[in-house]
UniProtKB/TrEMBL annotation:
E.C. number: 1.14.19.17
Enzyme class: oxidoreductase
Protein purpose: Delta(4)-fatty-acid desaturase which introduces a double bond at the 4-position in the long-chain base (LCB) of ceramides.
Matching InterPro entries: DES1/DES2 (IPR011388), FA_desaturase_dom (IPR005804), Sphingolipid_d4-desaturase_N (IPR013866)
Region described as Disordered: spans on this chain: 29-55, 367-386
Annotated compartments: Membrane
Reaction equations catalysed: an N-acylsphinganine + 2 Fe(II)-[cytochrome b5] + O2 + 2 H(+) = an N-acylsphing-4-enine + 2 Fe(III)-[cytochrome b5] + 2 H2O
A GO CC annotation given for this chain: membrane
Record's protein name: Sphingolipid delta(4)-desaturase
Amino acid sequence: MSGPSVAKCVRAEVDFSYFGGAESLAEGRQKRAPRRTVVVSPTEKDDGHSYPAPPQDPTDFLWLMTEEPHRTRRMAIMKAHPEVTKLMGHEPLTKFVVLAVVMLQVSIAIYLRNAHPLSFSFLLLAYAVGGTANHNLFLAIHEITHNLAFKGVNANKALAVFANLPIGIPYSAAFKKYHIEHHKHLGEDGVDTDLPTRLELLCLNNVLGKTFFATFQIFFYALRPGFVRVQTPTKWHLINLVIQIVFDYILIRTFGVRPFLYLLFSSFFAGSLHPCAGHFIAEHYLWDGLEQETYSYYGILNIFAYNVGYHNEHHDFPSVPWTRLPALRALAPEFYDVLPSHPSWPMVIINFIRDSEVGMFARGKRLGKGDSTSAGAAREKEVVGG
């Protein structure tokens, strides 16, 4: 064999990257964090360990041309398990849980009337007990919004106003309309106010920005809807406002401002770096490169959160109350146990902050129906590649 031929064979057989320094060993390899979601029943399509998809483009939201998935799965489950309708209906236990938590929070607030708001005991109670209790009330209002506490609509609205009292700020009436739109128009830009805005994407799409967002989530969820989609006030908005102001006034007038501060601190912690607050990010942010828009969590924190971790189940069947969501999953495991889910809410917050694969961009968006604005037309042209 001639000299040039030998040299050609050597080049084909020897990986010269081994002689190029340590950095050359990583050439062509993609470094990814460990997978964050798990699959209860692995399939050939998804074994629950390897990545099923490449990372998402961090410069924009994931624009989808498909319809939201929950209606399709709901119809499939009803066809396969028609007995699922027996799980639907109101849950009488809800009103008693709400009453107990409201009494607990008011009692602790009054108990702390002589404690300094920045003392260790005050802050510890506000975070550990108050944050958990007010988060429970957030999710009680969520449950009641679906008319699952009473048969009558007005009775549910009244209970939501009552559950709102320890939160300190009136929001239950406004939340109802925004949340129903979130279900009916999941992911629709300009309609679903659960979605981050373009400004949030531009300003918060880094570790520092995500830390800020996770710390002050409560303000984003409280203020964003008003900028995206303003509501027309109803009598229940007025009732919610007046009753909350009267309650706050009586509390401050009778026991001073510190009990009221305890309730406000509790609400802040409930929507900040709190274990239960992981569900805000866990529910609809995109993970592991998947285009799955909703994720469930089946861990112990559901005890404090009206089983809101069963979030695929909830979106599939909003008329099934919190006490029966585990039964819904058990009824149709072939639909739910194959879906990636989160093993931990606290780790969702940590991973959201530190992972480059997930951030403000990690949300699925679709064009609002009937969007004929120039911005909507431009977005449609971009999405379809026109």
